[in-house]
Structures are given as structure tokens and as C-alpha cells.
Design brief:
Number of strands of chain A: 5
Mean pLDDT of chain A: 70
Order of helices and strands of chain B: EHHEEEEHEHHEEEH
Shape of chain A: extended
Order of helices and strands of chain A: HHHHEEEEEH
Helix content of chain B: 25-40%
Number of helices of chain B: 6
Structural class of chain A: alpha+beta
Low-confidence stretches of chain A: 5-17, 19-38, 51-56, 63-82
Mean pLDDT of chain B: 92
Distance between the termini of chain A: 53 Å
Oligomer: heterodimer
Number of helices of chain A: 5
Structural class of chain B: alpha+beta
Largest sheet of chain A: 5 strands, antiparallel
Radius of gyration of chain B: 20 Å
Shape of chain B: elongated
Strand order of the largest sheet of chain B: 2-3-4-5-1-6-9-8-7
Strand content of chain B: 25-35%
Low-confidence stretches of chain B: none
């Protein structure tokens, strides 16, 4: 991920600039209506692609814009994007739903899994988007984040609850968890 | 001494392999219940065709270009959602040929004290031995550190430190957990994402904290 993170120079990464150039020649408006790609843009992509092929840190890292000045040259992508909001996380709590009522639910939260202190919160279902309410069942995992959000000149404090969509455990994973719990239980001297 | 302030953070999940970009449309995410119907209308489809897919759903940018598939966001409240989506994608496309996965985190910190900002650069990349004799006012522009993986679950870690181009004086720090297993099965990649998640997503902040602690 480079410093101009709003969008990635996807075309440059994989050397498809020729394809883009051709598409632009064929029908710019049809293919790249939003991007307004032109032959000039394809040339820029070619330069960036060449920059990247020189200095990839690792294949899964965004090819490294080693020099800030060069990374700034990637602003071409930002031309088509409006400035995105900026966020700073203030607090993140992870939790589990322990009780579901008709119009509320109770969840236990921790900041870190090693925390002994558990925070219990009763939350109105109206705080959850309607489409996600069926996911609020006992045992469901959730994340509660509080963050600052800057958009233009405006600063807001955001609070968001996300009901996790984790894949269901398979039998092997469940067996492993049971075994780990049993092993932990037997290792404790309960007196 | 003023404390550097975190101005921005973000995360990117990357898979390398062979993909079909056309399927990564918001409708596909809705069909498999990763998003709700209301998200479909609010999503931003920049382009979807056989070669490229670039869409934004719930503040997460999804980009697929044949050999590279990624989720990226600048909103920390979306990190876990990206994690869940990636696991679901791996579960839905179990026969996708994959070669590598990456978890990339980045941060921008504003350094309020310009002397300290210079001190960080001078400590990470000393100029006195070589550079000062060669050039006038040489400065660190980018530093890359690589820690090798073990070929199994311990990933290769790459760290890049640069002056921030957004917040001046400030530093930009980006980390990459690169996982390239010998056995390239989707379950292996899912296991990597799950096990490395906590440390990988916090890595840029951890490195920054260490730099600030050791270079007061």
C-alpha cells in the first residue's frame, strides 16, 4: 500500500497498459467512461509499471513507491476520485452476544482477549441496520468501533457495530477447540 | 516532548493467483450474503469486465486484475469486515489457484517536532559515515527492512519507512506480511489470514511505537 492509498495503480501493476491503450483507442467512453483514460494516461501507466517492476518489496506488498516524489506522480488515479474521508480509530471492542431480546440485545465486550475485565452493554436493536438484525443471535461475534472521521472540514465521532460474518466451524475445528478446553481444564488445580 | 499523532491508518488484504475479475461485482457479494440489499445501491462500481474489476462497497475498495485480488480500506472500523469477506471468498472459491497472500497495514504519523523528525531519519539511515561526504543535506527518503519467513506459517515481513507526503513533518510506515506456502490450498491461506490477523493488522503501529520509544 503506498502513500496515495485512495486507489491502486492497478493497471500499472500488471502491465496491462497496452490493453488500456488499445481500449482507449477503440472506445474511450464505453470502456473508461469514469477514468477518462487516454493514450496519455496509458503512457503514464507504462512509466509507473516500469517504476514498479524495478522495486517491488514483495509481490503482495504494493509495489514500492520508494521515492515520495514518484508516489506523488500516481495522483492520476485521484483525478477521478473525490477526496475520501479520513479516520482515526479511538477504541475497538470485540464481543459476543449473550442475550437477544425483542428490541435489544446484551453483549460482552473486551478490548483485548487477555483482558479479565468484561464490559457488558445493552444495545437497542435499532442501533443495528435492519438488514443485519437477523444476525444478532446469542453467540454471534461483533466488533464495536469508535473513531474520528474527518470529511472536508467536518469532524465527527463515529460509533459502529459490525456483526461478524465468520464462517461456521467445521467438525474438525470444533473437535480441536473441545480438546483444547479439556486440556486447559485438566491443567488447572481447582482445589 | 510532544507525542506523535496518528493521522491515518489503513489495511489491504491481497491474494495472488488466477482470478476471474468479472465475478467480483456487488451483486455477487449480495448473492452470497456478504452484504445486504441496501449495500448494493450504495456501492460504487468503477469498472467490471473480464480483465479488471474495481468496486467500492461499504468503504472497502475491491480490486481484481486477473492475477491480483485485493480488499483495501482506510477505515479501521472495516478491518474485521474485510477479514470475514476474505475468508468467505476463499470458502466460496476453493479451487482458485493461489500463490501468495499479503496483509498490508500502513500508518501516517504527524511528528510535531521537526528536530525529532530529522533525528528519526538520521538514526534509521545515518548520514555521517557515507552520505554527508558525498552530498549536501542528504535525507532519508525510503527505508526497507525485510525479515524472512520460515516457509510455513511464519510470513516474510517487509517494512517501509518514509517521510509522509501527506503530513509534514511526519512519517509514513507500511508493513507487509507476505505468505507464500509450498502447499497452495485455499484452506492454508485462510489459516494464514486467521492466525496472522492480529499481529499483521497492528504491525505498522507496533513498529511506529518502537521507533518513537527508541528515538525520543
Amino acid at each position: 500500500m503506498n502513500q496515495q492509498v485512495t486507489t491502486l495503480p492497478i493497471a500499472g501493476v500488471l502491465g496491462i497498459e497496452n490493453w488500456i491503450e488499445n481500449q482507449a483507442k477503440i472506445d474511450t467512453h464505453r470502456v473508461f467512461e469514469a477514468w477518462a483514460v487516454s493514450a496519455e494516461w496509458a503512457a503514464r501507466l507504462r512509466k509507473i509499471n516500469s517504476d514498479y517492476s524495478r522495486r517491488a518489496v514483495s509481490p503482495t506488498s504494493l509495489p514500492d513507491p520508494a521515492e515520495a516524489a514518484e508516489s506523488q506522480s500516481e495522483r492520476f488515479i485521484r483525478i477521478v476520485k473525490t477526496r475520501q474521508p479520513r479516520f482515526v480509530l479511538l477504541k475497538k471492542l470485540e464481543g459476543i452476544v449473550v442475550l437477544r431480546g425483542d428490541d435489544f440485545f446484551v453483549a460482552h465486550f473486551v478490548e483485548n482477549y487477555s483482558d479479565v475485565k468484561i464490559l457488558e452493554a445493552e444495545i437497542a436493536l435499532s442501533d443495528i441496520p435492519e438488514s443485519e438484525r437477523p444476525l444478532v443471535v446469542e453467540g454471534a461475534f461483533l466488533v464495536w468501533t469508535m473513531s474520528y472521521r474527518w470529511e472536508g472540514g467536518e469532524l465527527r465521532r463515529d460509533s459502529a457495530i459490525y456483526i461478524r460474518r465468520l464462517p461456521a466451524w467445521n467438525a474438525q475445528e470444533a473437535e480441536k477447540a473441545i480438546h483444547a478446553a479439556q486440556s486447559l481444564r485438566t491443567s488447572i488445580d481447582w482445589e | 516532548m510532544s507525542t506523535p499523532t496518528l493521522e491515518e491508518e489503513g489495511l489491504e488484504l491481497v491474494l495472488l493467483g488466477s482470478f476471474n475479475p468479472r465475478i467480483f461485482h456487488p451483486a455477487w457479494f449480495l448473492r452470497y450474503e456478504l452484504i445486504a440489499e441496501a449495500d448494493l445501491g450504495a456501492s460504487d462500481v468503477q469498472i467490471v469486465n473480464n480483465n479488471i474489476s474495481q468496486v467500492t462497497i461499504r468503504g472497502v475498495q475491491i480490486v481484481c486484475v486477473n492475477e491480483r485480488f485485493s480488499f483495501a480500506t482506510m477505515d479501521p472500523s472495516r478491518f474485521e469486515m474485510m477479514h470475514d469477506w476474505m475468508l468467505k471468498v476463499l470458502a466460496l472459491l476453493p479451487h482458485t489457484p493461489l500463490t501468495a497472500a499479503g496483509i498490508n497495514s500502513y500508518v501516517h504519523y504527524r511528528i510535531h517536532d521537526k528536530d525529532r523528525w530529522h533525528r528519526i531519519g538520521d538514526t534509521l539511515a545515518p548520514k555521517t559515515k557515507v552520505w554527508d561526504d558525498l552530498f549536501t543535506e542528504p535525507g532519508m527518503q525510503s527505508l526497507t527492512i525485510k525479515a524472512p519467513g520460515d516457509g510455513h506459517m511464519r510470513p516474510e515481513v517487509n517494512v517501509v519507512v518514509e517521510p509522509s507526503v501527506k503530513y509534514s513533518p511526519g512519517i509514513f510506515l507500511r508493513t507487509n506480511y507476505h505468505f507464500q506456502p509450498e502447499k497452495a490450498e485455499t484452506t492454508e491461506f485462510a489459516r494464514f489470514i486467521t492466525t496472522a490477523w492480529k499481529s499483521a493488522t497492528a504491525e505498522a503501529k507496533r513498529v511506529a511505537a518502537s521507533i518513537f520509544e527508541k528515538i525520543p
